[in-house]
Amino acid sequence: MTLDAAAPARTTGTVRVVGTGLLGTSAALALTLRRVDVVLADPSPTAVALARDLGAGRLAGPDDDPALVLVACPPDVVADVVADELARFPRAVVTDVASVKGGPLATLRARGADLTRYVGSHPMAGRERSGAVAARTDLFAGRPWVIAATEVTGPAALQAVRDLAADCGGAPVTMAAREHDEAVALVSHAPQVAASLVAARLRDAAEPAVALAGQGLRDVTRIAASDPALWAQILAGNAAPVADVLEALRTDLDEVITALRSLAADPVAPGARARLARAIADGGVGRDRIPGKHGSAPTLYRTVVVVVPDRPGALGRLLTDVGEAGVNLEDLRLEHSEGQAVALASIDVVPASGEPLVDALRVRGWTVPG
Ligand SMILES: NC(=O)c1ccc[n+]([C@@H]2O[C@H](COP(=O)([O-])OP(=O)(O)OC[C@H]3O[C@@H](n4cnc5c(N)ncnc54)[C@H](O)[C@@H]3O)[C@@H](O)[C@H]2O)c1
Ligand SMILES: O=C(O)C(=O)C[C@]1(C(=O)O)C=C[C@@H](O)C=C1
Description:
By secondary structure, this protein is an alpha/beta fold. It has helices at 22-33, 45-53, 75-88, 102-110, 155-167, 177-200, 207-210, 215-221, 228-237, 239-265, 272-288, 314-324, 354-363, and strands spanning 15-18, 38-41, 58-59, 68-71, 93-96, 118-123, 144-148, 171-174, 302-309, 331-336, 342-349. The two termini are 27 Å apart. The protein has three domains: 15-176, Rossmann fold, CATH 3.40.50.720; 182-288, 6-phosphogluconate dehydrogenase C-terminal like domain (6-phosphogluconate dehydrogenase C-terminal fold), CATH 1.10.3660.10; 302-363, ACT domain (Alpha-Beta Plaits, 2-Layer Sandwich). It is built from 13 helices and eleven strands. Prephenic acid is lined by residues 99, 124-128, 188, 223.
């Protein structure tokens, strides 16, 4: 799904994005596309410059007067950063996109922060990869964006964050922080643990066994590639609700194991096959309840691979040339092996832009294999 760049943005004034990784840069790209004025800040000069180079906005300066601040930093520092932003910009509404909402809210409340201007939020969209290079303009398109209002949230602040979510392409959903944390334990945090544990079984497995891996394993383990540091913070920040879901899962798992053990001892053990069938059938029923992204199939991109010389400015030139070819970059991955004089850039674009981009890059002197 692509965002409608022509539709006027509801967000007015400057938006300051603090933390220009995957989430911050994706939001900044979506807002910039809608011609919202976006300024970018991050303690990492590389992260912020990269987001700027990707077209996500301009670098923050001392005279900025943002109407809205979007904090997209790691969860364990989010309360500190939100508190700083509230103090630094006393007229701005501040939101954050951290995956847990109760802990940061409690910390801010305990510190006496101005909760009329702070509205925590959480887009239910992301990737198993981090950083601005993984950002996508349409990351939030059609995805729920939870807005965790409190009893003291000012109506204008609430509307500003709803507008921001909608301008990024998300579908705003209002929910209390606690209700949110219990819901995401079920639909996001416990699934991450399950995927990681399944994938971890492969770590020391024999190579011939791993070599047989098919699509089923790939589907179940995509998110096992997620950032361990980020996820340790998310899981620790929502510990009790995640433990509740995993305990229920352990009960089901124990029943399946008992059925399997009884079948191993007696191939006609009564009731065992029924328990196995029920486990699979219940999974099907649960899966059927998962809403699609606007009911549509996921977007498939064409990947164009380009050889990039290992020289300062080469990647910047490539990104400029992609932009000048009039092509919207949906994703960029860089592979670089030590000691090699070149890197490979994999650029994802919508399928219709694939061939025109290959032609345009070759004309500009880039090596595009294949
Ligand atoms: N990754 C996902 O799928 C996903 C989805 C929804 C929400 N979130 C939430 O979004 C937030 C950002 O996650 P991400 O995946 O974009 O991570 P990321 O690692 O891609 O980016 C985090 C950015 O925050 C910056 N940062 C670190 N400390 C900071 C500080 N003190 N102040 C300001 N910036 C700081 C880092 O330099 C980095 O650029 C997290 O709170 C996460 O829970 C992530
Ligand atoms: O698609 C992915 O890679 C994600 O894991 C995204 C996902 C999710 O569980 O859906 C992960 C964590 C976030 O807080 C929100 C979204």
